Amino acid sequence: MHDYSALIHQALPLCLTETDFKIGKKYRGKVRDTYDLGDKLVLVTTDRQSAFDRVLASVPFKGQVLNLTSAWWFEQTQHIIPNHVLVIPDPNVTLAKKCKVFPVEFVMRGYITGTTSTALWTQYNNCVRNYCGNPLPEGLRKNQKLAKPLLTPTTKDEKHDHPVSPAEILELGLMTQKEWEIAANAAFKLYEFGVQTAEKHGLILVDTKYEMGKDDEGNILLVDEIHTPDSSRYWLKESYEQRLAQGLEPENIDKEFLRLWFAENCDPYKDAVLPAAPKDLIVTLASRYIKLYEMITGHPFHFPSLETAVSNRIMRNTAGFLANV
Q1: 173-189 pLDDT, tens per residue?
Q2: Do residues 34 and 26 make contact, with C-beta atoms less than 8 angstroms apart?
Q3: Closest CA to 58 of 77, 71, 45
């Protein structure tokens, strides 16, 4: 695997952290800037890095990795459920069909792990034995594989995600019974496909989350992103069993180690101002994101020219597509 550290260091001051395109109505998410064009959306994946319900840092090339990783998985999973992708006009951009998104995230877990307040291990360690309607046996150890994958949905909230059971989703009127059944079935199938695909590439897809919505014809589509290092946790398969036996944390290839750094150096949920993540940590994270993209897709990562501002390149690449919408 190539060492891209020098290129990443060079790009540290050139991250895409904000966009201000004069198109549609803009919505700023933690990572994506969404431009609403009416029946279509322009989704711009920035280099902002979020965790603990806030932005922690900016990571070079991260937006490109996320957008292209998602694009690859969307294409691979069309046989399971249709998705919102219309075209990928730029490495950081997806032109998507606008859907009415369900206010629920479909979180799939195959292992008991995590550090955040809603993580399965955090809840289990606090004596929770029924999580989102799933009974949990006694004696589970951190990072071990669950007997079967669990669907642990959360309600989508601007600031915090709240675990919720399927019964509560129906009681709150967030989805109908039929919508829930279709979406839940798709979540299990997507996760199973993701696990099998990741395994072929030397990876363990530990857990992930999906978002779904309905288009104007009433079809349920997969939206947002899929199996990226932002929405998913990945471990290296080769060393997992040995490290588990030794009581060591699995080798991760996602943003978990950045979460751990902030958890050890501050209270990321309560502190108003957080310390700046060390540059070497950011470079390592960017390297892992790129490595994951290459491992999963089998494609080499194409570094964009650093001489052109990312925002200028995006407008140049998308102009032709936007002229036709």
Answers
A1: 999 999 999 999 999 99
A2: yes
A3: 45
